[in-house]
Amino acid sequence: MAKKILLIDDNRLTREINGSLLERAGYKTVSAGDGRQGLKELEEEKIDLIILDLVMPDIDGFEFLNLYKKNSLTQHIPVIVLTIRDSPQEIERAKRLGAEACLIKHKMRPQALLDSVRIILGE
User: Fold this and answer.
1) DSSP 67-97
2) What is the pTM of this model?
3) With respect to CATH, is domain 4-120 assigned 3.40.50.2300?
């Protein structure tokens, strides 16, 4: 059975591109346009991995990490942060809040995302 990945990003095109990449690699994807919708998807779907943007309206990535870690039903799900922010302080903050990996959108090749997903999912 294919692993299911939740893509949380307010940029629809980013969700579509990454979703297509992951689906071609054999994963199933679910998308959310912000942190609030992402939390709702976690309640409705069995998710194996989360790919999370930090910069979003309403509930941003940092707040999402705080909230999902407080829920015993979701806190075990690994998170890859995929963001435009490349400040070392923000990357460190995301990791302190539980992100397994942090990738910078404008510096990342698509293969790096797939490699990170496979490593974190133990494949």
Assistant:
1) HHHT-TTTTTS-EEEEES---HHHHHHHHHT
2) 0.95
3) yes
